[in-house]
């Protein structure tokens, strides 16, 4: 029986004629014209590196590792061994022979075993590179290699159950678990926000493959491996949720120590809004994850209601926006000048609205949220008008109809006070910044509407005063004041 087993293994390992290969894939011969994606970093057995295979985009491929003639010969020996009561030994011999092919095939894909400790200790730049290799390798193994091994095993052990199932799972389990363990290690590693997009890519790769695994892992012996793939899909989904939670923590921890120059847009606002906009590029996947489905729909995309601002993802993003708003409110308190604090809040609020309205964030957050945010910006604008220009317009008041005319001396005193206030405001606020062009126009227009009528009225009354020499005290004409207002909020560099 030992001689028969040796013959059995020899036929599997060295078939009598070459079998077809996957173009650019597992069957590459390592010749000089083969593209090496590893930059000399092929992972081999012994001293010889194994060339890394070219990428494959069409997964509708089956590898016929043995020719029909070889399969017939191997099938006859398998039948004889099973009939003699050596079915388990036959399965073990088959698995040992095929395992070397599976191991080398995976090595050609540029992936190698990595412990969880190695993954956790690796810099993110290195892990991004590893993930870029892992995703196509995962697809190649679970869409081509393993189904091909199942097909071959079923042909060799046709009618010899359960030995074919035992042989199949023994041949592919090690490399399959190696790929799965990398996904688990990534899921359990740091949940820094910048990792979201690569983890989403991994999740989608695993989720999309789940429906195709059912016919491959249909027997009791391979069901556990199918469950492992489903489990890594769950852990990657949980990792995505955890990354969103870490984004909240990052916003909360962002210190309120350094003020944005001129009340401009804070870096945390830019980061969070651009991050969320980019995340919405994977909105369907994020909806699925936040709902807790984790690929439960068999890989089918979750239907996204375009008018549903109450989904789990929408609620989560609304919560992140609330955390950001509270953080910005705290940062506004750094400014000693309440007017500058209002400018800061207006700038950041307007930026948030822009990023929401021209992306899918607007759909997720809804019109009511946008209206509420717009109302906040309007309130900050009114607060700015009151804190900055309230005292200016008050000092310019000269009384309404039916009120006795102010003495010229009193009007000149008001003019001197206005000049002092206005020069102080202009010196400071010409270096402040309002980033949005339309908001800057609107704020300037509001300042003009509140200041220019009362200032022009005061100047007109002074010019019509019977006392001589009043013109000498007029430092700014109404046109001068208007021109100065138009130069506000340009920033220190302009």
UniProtKB/TrEMBL annotation:
Short name of any one Pfam family annotated for the protein: Exo70_C
GO terms classed as biological process: exocytosis; protein transport
Membrane as UniProt keyword: no
UniProt GO molecular function: phosphatidylinositol-4,5-bisphosphate binding
InterPro entries given in the database record: Cullin_repeat-like_dom_sf, Exo70, Exo70_C
Coiled-coil ranges per UniProt: none
Spans annotated as Disordered: 15-44
UniProt keyword annotations, A-Z: Exocytosis, Protein transport, Transport
Entries under Gene3D superfamilies matching the protein: Exocyst complex component Exo70
The keyword Cell wall biogenesis/degradation is annotated on this UniProt entry: no
All residue ranges annotated as the Exocyst complex subunit Exo70 C-terminal domain in the record: 133-486
One GO term describing the cellular component: exocyst
Superkingdom of origin: Eukaryota
Reported function: Component of the exocyst complex.
Family membership noted in the UniProt record: Belongs to the EXO70 family.
PANTHER family registered for this protein in UniProt: EXOCYST COMPLEX PROTEIN EXO70, EXOCYST SUBUNIT EXO70 FAMILY PROTEIN
Protein name: Exocyst subunit Exo70 family protein
Organism from which the protein derives: Arundo donax (Giant reed)
Organism classification: Eukaryota, Viridiplantae, Streptophyta, Embryophyta, Tracheophyta
